[in-house]
Amino acid sequence: MLGPSVTHSALLLGRGLLEPIASGCLQRAAAPLVSALVCTSQRGGIWRFGSSALHSSAAAAAEGGAKEGEQPAAGEQASGEQAAAQEAPQLSAEECAAALAEAQTALEEEKKRAEDLKDKLLRTLADMENLRERTSRLTAETKQFAVQGLVKNLLDVADNLERAAGSIPDSDVAEGSECDRDRALQLLRSLRDGVLMTDTVLMKVLAKEGVSRFDPLGDKFDPNLHNALFEVPDATKEPGTIAVVHKRGYMLNERVVRAAERSGLQPRAAAAAHWGGRARALRVQAVSGQQRPQVQQQGLEAYRTAEQQNGALRIGPDHQQQAAAAPAAAQPGQDASRQQRLQLHYRTPWSQPLLHHSLAGGEWRGVPMQRVVSGGGWWTAANLHWDGSTVASSSSSDSSGGSNGTAPLLEFVITDGQDAWDKAPDGGNYCIATPGNWRLRDGQLAPVAMPPVCLVSDLDDTMIGDDAGTAAFRQWWHEEGVPAGGRLVYNTGRALDLFEQLLQDKGQVLPEPDMLISAIGTRIYTKRGGRWQEDEGYTAQLGRGWQLEGVREACYKALATVGKDAMHFRPPNEMSEHKVTCGVRLNVLDKVLATIRSDLQQAGIRHRLVVSGSGDWRFMDLVPAEAGKLQALEYARRTMEFEPHQTVACGDSGNDIDMLEGGHLSIIVGNAHKELLEWAATQRAAHAGEVYVAQGQRAWGILEGLQRYGFKA
């Protein structure tokens, strides 16, 4: 049976086809009557067949001049009928009946022909619907089994892995079993051969799909092909040479699928300055102390278990400890409450480093260090809070300036959770004497002079728009901003999918944020487990007093007032249950705003209305009263534990005014819109926070403003 959509289409199409068919039927059916020009009617009048219709001569005479209710004279009527009779030959009643029968037969034939065409039309529509369903089904099956060929080829790889595992009998690896050296070497060679054979088969399978593997060892670093992990000093080779390849790269039809992960070389001068011409391994394997070798051979969980069983597991108690100089008692832009927190940033390629430490002479504990998302995969951080109690005494020597046997505030080493340890260059433990922000990089522990900053920036035409400026910001942020305790937040009108596409397009120059505020402050995301996940606590507070349908109804009413040529709803991916966006022409904007505000006020719907854009069209966003760029910024600032004077907002257009007018610091980039510059000139004095208008455009202006506020050297 045909569906409603098909029936509707058939009616529309059938109407278009049947109208000309019916017209042709009438013409062909009337053709036999054309020859019957005149026949006598029962009323005595003479009927004529003209160019467009049959009409009565008597009626024609009446149309020619007789008024309603008047009868033509008898002589006039007779002379008219005689003239009409002379104009055309007359037919008998039998001839007229024959002509009519012939016309009726022709009409029936045309009706039958029209029914045949209608039947063919409906059958064609049914066939098209069946074709559409078959195509849809085939497309779904194609997607489902598109990798069937690849999977079939990979089965050989699975078979080889099974053979490699089976090359070593279970009896030889069972608990308590013994195996002589020759037997062990034979099994090891067999296993190795199986693995190599499997690798060969796998690369052949991938090559059929256009995948190739490349090893850049010894090549010059290319950011398009290689992902730098860290630098190692080597005075014998050119700077920028790839020294170690941790993961080889892969390409699909000349497009990089995964960049090669490598370690590079520092410039010779830097290597000589840091290490005196000698290379130092980042992963320290040597271990001192009696308990450490036992712990070193265990994994992370076993390490934690051993730590708990052994109580205060002291690291290297007999070795001299290294302590860096203390930072200033009060850093610029840092309040007293933050002075009681000790923050350590550690630059490492390790995925999950563990800070094994003793705080204020207390027990030794293991704390996992957290990856800083905006750190480019390099920086991890640990936050330790100190209540200000007296540091316990210790017999260990100390070069931090402590006296009378006072232990350092923090004594620590770092492990990758397996078998690698990072200790002080002299073989002892790292030591920190005072709270504040500290940085450990390439074995060098030092206090951070610059204050931490929570940077909240708009994206389009603020952070991005000039790739060179964005890249310069990224380099400074990775080298200085993150280790100083800085955290990066993007506050944008883009939805999450559009932001992820931007990251993919600009990933070489744009740093990832630690937090994302999207859709005009109606959504907040943080990255957990490699994915951006919504902050449900923030979203839950947006529903108070907000009615989506009521807001949309007010917008529909305004649209009906000005017309669809002056106002329209934006695509669904730009809206959500807490955001309605419309495009409005500038010449009707005031009227639309007044209409919507009046309707929402009468309905008691709490809302925030944001207008942005330039030119003849404006974007109009309606969001809950608790939403908005400023509200989301305040939520982010509190969540990440920053004070207003440690928070800097950056923007370029009118829809950033909401974010810039808070009690924090603000930067307006040099390419800002006229409306924002006018606001800065006339209203910024009334706000609690300071507003700086930069000369530099986009990201260059951000760097300029950070330097102006003392967050950048």
Automatic annotation (TrEMBL):
Record CDD domains: GrpE
PANTHER family noted in UniProt: SUCROSE-PHOSPHATASE 2-RELATED (PTHR46521:SF4)
A Pfam family this chain is assigned to: GrpE
UniProt-recorded Gene Ontology molecular function terms: adenyl-nucleotide exchange factor activity; hydrolase activity; protein homodimerization activity; protein-folding chaperone binding
Record flagged with keyword Coiled coil: yes
Tagged with keyword Chaperone: yes
Cell compartments where the protein resides: Mitochondrion matrix
Protein name: Sucrose-phosphate synthase
Organism: Chlorella sorokiniana
Family that this chain belongs to: Belongs to the GrpE family.
Biased composition (Low complexity): 71-91, 320-332
